[in-house]
Amino acid sequence: TAELLRGEIVFVNEAGLGVATLALGAASRPAPQVELAEAIVRVAADGSILQANATAQEILGLTYDEVTRRFVADFAQETFYEDGRRCPVEEYPVSLCLTTGRPSGPATIGVRRPDGKMSWAVFSALPLDPQPDGRCNGAVVTFLDLTERKALEEQLRQAQRMESIGRLAGG
Question: Among 39, 68, 118, 139, which is disulfide-ready with 55 (CB 3.0 to 4.6 Å)?
């Protein structure tokens, strides 16, 4: 959950502990950078990206300036589901959140970075100032990096395949 306190969003985990903050200051200045395992991005109601922490920048393979010059829709050709299908912008948790004014996610989505590498993450979105008519004044997107885990899972699958082939060849 998220609570608005003194101009900051404070994220609270299931145990009720604050796990991250993102200042809601002017969009023209970078948010305070804190080393977090969780990526945090603030998105305006029009889909423009206003702020992103260092973890988000690392996962997306973009600098702060590159991220904040983008709109959510700019990732359309770069996002994929685990089965290899493209993930349409309309199905991103942040798009659903901005459309409905309700929290959305989690969803596992792969993002092709500018360097060609794939980053995998679980994305969720929370509305900012939700209105009774379903609109909101933006959203906060959080995502956890799964890239290393996905790579280890693929290595395990490969090892299991090789073991199966070895058993078949051995008789």
Answer: 39
